[in-house]
Amino acid sequence: MTLGLFDPAFLGGLAAPSPGVWTPADITTALWLDATDATKIVLSGSNVTQWSDKSGNGRNATPYTISPTYNATGLNSQGTIDFNGSTQALQVADFYQSDWYIMVLAKTNNASADQGIVSKFDGSNDRELLFRFTSGNKLLGLINPVGNSGAANTIVTTSASAGTSFGVFGFYKSGTTCELGINGTIESGTFNTSTVYDGALPFAIGREALGVYFNGSIQQLVVTQGAPTADTMRKLEGWAAWSAGLESLLPAAHPYKNAAP
Prior knowledge:
Largest sheet: 8 strands, antiparallel
Number of helices: 1
Order of helices and strands: EEEEEEEEEEEEEEEEEH
C-alpha cells in the first residue's frame, strides 16, 4: 500500500496539518486596523500617535487633535484602542468608495448618546457616510448623494439594540441596498439613491461632526474594497468573533457559529 504525504501513518501516527485560519489578509481590503497587533501601534506614553494600516494601502490612522489611548489587555488579554467620548479621535487621509462593508469589533460605554464610530461627515455641508451608535443604542448607517444636510441624506437604523459589551458591528452598502449587522444578525434597509457624495473629508474614527465623539473601545476595523459577497461578510464576522473569544454571540444559524473560518 502506498501512503499519501498527509496520511497519519506516513507521519508516524501524527494527525494531518490543519488548514490555515482565514483572516482579512485573504481578501482585498481598503483599510485594516488591528489593535491586537502591537507592532502596528506607535505610542507616546499610552497615547496612540499612529495606528498602522495592514491592508497594504498605507492608510495609517493618526490623531485628530487629541489621540486615544492604547490598552494592551482591553479585551480578553488583547489590545484595544480606547476613546473618551469628548476629545479623542483618529483620522485616515481621504479615500472614496461608492460601496463598502465596514466591520468593527467594538463596544460603546454609553447607550444613550449619538456617537460616530466611523464617518466622513462634518455636520454641515460635507456629508459622505456615517456609521454610529445612536442615542437609543441602535446602529445607524447614512449616505448622502450631494454632500449637504437635509432630505438628501438617507438613513437606515436597526431595530435591535447594540448593547454596551464588545460585539461585531457591520455596515454594508451596495447600490441602494444596506445591511446593518449586530453580532452576525443582519437587518436590511434601502437607500433612496445609489450615489455617494465624493467629499474631501478624512475618514474619521471615533467622531463625526465636531463634538460628537465615540465613548468606547475598538479592537478591529476592516473596510473592504467595494461591496463583498455575503460569504465574505460572514467570514469577517466569524473571524472577528472567534479571534476575540466572542463566538458565543453569533446566532445559531451563522455559518461560523461552531468553527472559525
